[in-house]
Design goal:
heterodimer; A: 372 residues; alpha+beta; 2 domains; 10-stranded mixed sheet; 12 helices; 10 strands; 16% strand; B: 226 residues; alpha/beta; 4-stranded antiparallel sheet; 7 helices; 33% helix; binds adenosine-5'-triphosphate; binds magnesium ion
C-alpha cells in the first residue's frame, strides 16, 4: 500500500517530532491501562472477600455487658449463630511471653469459620488449643507442643491457615480454645460477639432487622454489623477511585490527542507544496486523506502498544506492591484493559488526525502548488 | 487529431480588490506530436494557460477538450484521472517527492494507475532519460538539478501520457544543463510526444516548432521557429 509507505517515511522524516507525539499517546494509554488494571484488581480482590464473608453478620454487645445466653438463644432462632468469647491475655510460647488474643468457641463451630493448616480441630469439650498461623511462625510452634495460658498448659493440636484481618475474628495472632476451656481459664459469662451466618447474601438485611427487633425491643442491647455493607462501601470507594484514575488517563489522552492534532496540522502546512505536486500528477483526494490517516494510525498504534505493555507492567508492579497478589492481573477483565488502552490510543490518534487529513485532502492542487 | 482544443477560453480570478482576467478569450488547437513554446511577459497568463490544459484549473468561460474529451464540468475525481493518465507535468523546481528515491518517483504515477511491471518500466525510463542507473536509488536531495529534472521528465512519461506540460523547465538550471534538458525534450518529442513548454528564454523556444505569445491574457500570434 503506497500511502502507508508514504506515511511511514513522512514520520521517519521528522523522527523527533513523531517520537514526541507517540510519547503523549504512550503516557495516556499507560495511565488508562495501569489504572484500569489496578482498579479492576482491587475490585476483584474485594469481591472475592465479599463472596467469602458477605453472608455474615456480627452481633456485638452495645455496652460493656457481654451478650447473655438468653439473647444468644434469641439470635439463634433467626439463623445459624456462632457465639465467640474473646479476651486479650499474656501467653508463654516456646519460653517467650507475648500478648495474644484468646478466642473461646464451641468446638463444632471452629471448622465452620476457620481452616486448618496442620494437625486437628478441637474435639468437643477439649482442653487443648489451636494456634493462628502467624503465632506458629513467629514462635516456631509445632503440633504437639504446649502453650502456657493462665495456669493451664493446653497442648497445641492444630495450626490454623492464614486468614488475614477479618471483620468477625482475626485468628492469625490468636489462640483458639474450646468454650469449656475458656470458661475454665477466665470464668466469664456471656459472649463478646456472635457471628451469624445466613444462607443467601440477599437474606442479610432481613436477618439483621429481625435480630434488632428481637433484642433491641426495650433498649439497645446489641449492635449488628453487616459485613456486606462494609465491603460494599469499600468496593464503592475503590470504584470511585478507579473511575477517578481512569479520568486522569483520559485527560492525558486528550492532551496527547491535541498534540497529535498540532503535529499533523504542522505537517499538512509544511507539506502543502508536496501535496500539490502529488495531486497534480494524479493522486486522488482519497489518497491524500489516507496518507495522513495512516500517519496518525501509526502514531496511535505504536504509542498504544507501547503504552499498553508498559501499563500492564506498571499494573503488575502496583498489584504486587499494594495488593501482594499478581493473579488478578491475568483475569480476563484485567487483560481487557490492555486492549481498551490500545483502542483508546489508536482512537484518539486517528480522531486527532481526521481534521488535518481532511484539510490536506481538500487543498486545491494549483493553490497548493503555488505554496512555498 | 487535435490533442488540445481551447475555444474562447476566459479565466477570471476573483480577488478581494477586484477581478483579474488571466486569460481573455483564448482559442488554440494543438495537434498530436507538436512541440510548442508559450512565451510572454510576466503575468501574461502563461501558467494559467498551461494549468487549464493540464486540468489543474478550470475555465470561467469557453470549452476545453483534452485528448478528444471535453473536460468542462468534470468533477475532481475525473480530472485527477485525466492528469494521472493523459498528462505529464514537468516543473521549474523539479518537485520530486522528497521521501521517494528517483526510481520510486518514476514508479509512483504507475502505482497510482495500477500498471503492472512498474519496477521494470521505471528502470527503462531512467536509462531512456540518460541517467546513470545507480542514481536510481538516490533521494532527490542527493541529485543535481539537471539529474532531478531528468527524473521529473521520466516521471512525466511514466503513464505514457498524450501531452507533456513543462512550466519553465530550465528556469532553475544553468545554460549547459538547460541545453541538455531541451535536447532530451526534443528527443522525446521526436519519439511522438506532444510537448508544451512555458519559457522566457528565446534559446529554449528555438528548440520548439511553434510559439504561442501571450500578452495580457490574449494570444497575440502564432509563430513558427525552425
Ligand atoms: N490563483 C490565482 N489567484 C488570483 N490571481 C491569479 C492566480 N493565478 C494567477 N493569477 C493572476 O493571473 C495573472 C496571470 O498569471 P500567470 O501565473 O498565468 O502568469 P505567467 O504568465 O505565468 O507569469 P510568470 O511569467 O510570472 O510566471 C496574473 O496577474 C496573476 O496575478
Ligand atoms: Mg508562470
Amino acid at each position: 500500500m503506497i500511502f502507508f509507505e508514504f506515511a511511514k517515511r513522512n514520520l521517519a522524516r521528522h523522527k523527533f517530532r513523531s517520537v514526541l507525539a507517540i510519547l503523549g499517546i504512550v503516557i495516556g494509554v499507560l495511565a488508562i491501562t495501569a489504572l484500569g488494571i489496578l482498579g479492576n484488581s482491587v475490585q476483584l480482590a474485594v469481591s472475592e472477600q465479599l463472596c467469602m464473608i458477605g453472608n455474615e453478620l456480627v452481633v456485638y454487645p452495645y455496652g460493656e455487658e457481654a451478650i447473655s445466653e438468653d439473647n444468644f438463644k434469641k439470635i439463634e432462632k433467626v439463623a445459624e449463630a456462632i457465639p465467640v468469647q474473646s479476651i486479650g491475655d499474656k501467653a508463654t510460647l516456646n519460653g517467650e511471653s507475648t500478648f495474644v488474643m484468646v478466642y473461646g468457641m464451641r468446638s463444632e463451630d471452629i471448622p465452620k469459620l476457620l481452616e486448618k493448616e496442620a494437625g486437628q480441630f478441637l474435639k468437643h469439650g477439649s482442653l487443648n488449643c489451636m494456634v493462628g498461623s502467624r503465632l506458629a511462625d513467629n514462635y516456631e510452634l509445632r503440633v504437639g507442643e504446649r502453650a502456657a495460658l493462665q495456669s493451664q498448659k493446653p497442648r497445641i493440636v492444630g495450626i490454623l491457615a492464614e486468614r488475614g484481618v477479618g471483620f468477625d475474628i482475626s485468628p492469625d495472632n490468636a489462640i483458639i480454645v474450646s468454650d469449656k476451656m475458656f470458661d475454665l481459664m477466665y470464668n466469664t459469662t456471656g459472649y463478646n460477639s456472635v457471628i451469624v451466618k445466613v444462607e443467601k447474601i440477599e437474606d442479610v438485611e432481613e436477618a439483621r432487622e429481625e435480630i434488632e427487633a428481637r433484642l433491641n425491643k426495650k433498649e439497645e442491647v446489641v449492635m449488628v454489623m453487616e459485613l456486606k455493607m462494609i465491603v460494599e462501601g469499600i468496593k464503592g470507594l475503590f470504584n470511585t477511585i478507579s473511575i477517578f484514575l481512569l479520568g486522569i488517563g483520559a485527560i492525558s489522552l486528550v492532551v496527547a490527542g491535541v498534540s497529535i492534532l498540532n503535529v499533523m496540522m504542522m505537517s499538512t502546512v509544511e507539506r502543502t507544496k508536496e501535496i500539490g505536486v502529488m495531486r497534480a500528477i494524479g493522486t486522488s483526494k482519497r489518497g491524500i486523506l489516507r496518507m495522513f490517516l495512516f500517519e496518525s494510525l501509526i502514531l496511535g498504534a505504536i504509542g498504544g502498544v507501547i503504552g499498553a505493555i508498559s501499563g500492564f507492567g506498571a499494573g503488575f508492579l502496583v498489584d504486587v506492591l499494594i495488593l501482594h497478589e499478581a493473579s488478578y492481573l491475568f483475569a480476563p477483565s484485567s487483560i481487557l484493559y490492555v486492549f481498551v488502552g490500545i483502542a483508546f490510543g489508536v482512537g484518539t490518534s486517528v480522531l486527532s488526525g481526521l481534521y488535518p487529513a481532511w484539510r490536506a485532502s481538500k487543498l486545491k492542487p494549483i493553490e497548493a502548488l503555488r505554496h512555498e | 487529431m487535435n490533442v488540445v482544443e481551447l475555444v474562447e477560453v476566459t479565466k477570471v480570478y476573483e480577488l478581494p480588490r477586484g477581478s483579474v482576467k488571466a486569460l481573455d478569450n483564448v482559442t488554440a488547437s494543438i495537434e498530436a506530436g507538436e512541440f510548442i513554446s508559450v512565451m510572454g511577459p510576466s503575468g501574461s497568463g502563461k501558467t494559467t494557460f498551461l494549468n487549464i490544459i493540464g486540468c489543474l484549473d478550470t475555465p470561467t468561460e469557453g470549452t476545453v477538450d483534452i485528448g478528444g474529451e471535453n473536460i468542462n464540468g468534470l468533477d475532481d475525481e475525473a480530472l485527477t484521472k485525466i492528469r494521472r493518465d493523459k498528462i505529464g507535468f514537468v516543473f521549474q523546481q523539479f518537485n520530486l517527492i522528497a521521501t521517494l528515491t528517483a526510481l520510486e518517483n518514476i514508479e509512483y504515477p504507475m502505482i497510482l494507475k495500477g500498471v503492472n511491471g512498474h519496477e521494470e518500466k521505471s528502470k527503462e525510463l531512467v536509462s531512456s532519460v540518460g541517467l546513470d542507473e545507480e542514481l536510481g536509488e538516490n533521494k532527490p536531495n542527493e541529485l543535481s538539478g539537471g539529474e532531478q529534472q531528468r527524473v521529473a521528465i521520466a516521471r512525466a512519461l511514466a503513464n505514457d501520457p498524450d501531452i507533456i506540460l513543462a512550466d519553465e523547465p530550465t528556469g532553475n538550471l544553468d545554460s549547459k544543463t538547460s541545453k541538455d534538458i531541451m535536447q532530451l525534450l526534443k528527443d522525446t518529442n521526436e519519439r511522438g510526444k506532444t510537448i508544451i513548454i512555458v519559457t522566457h528564454d528565446p534559446q529554449v523556444a528555438s528548440y520548439t516548432k511553434r510559439t504561442f505569445r501571450l500578452v495580457d491574457g490574449r494570444i497575440d500570434s502564432d509563430g513558427v521557429f525552425l
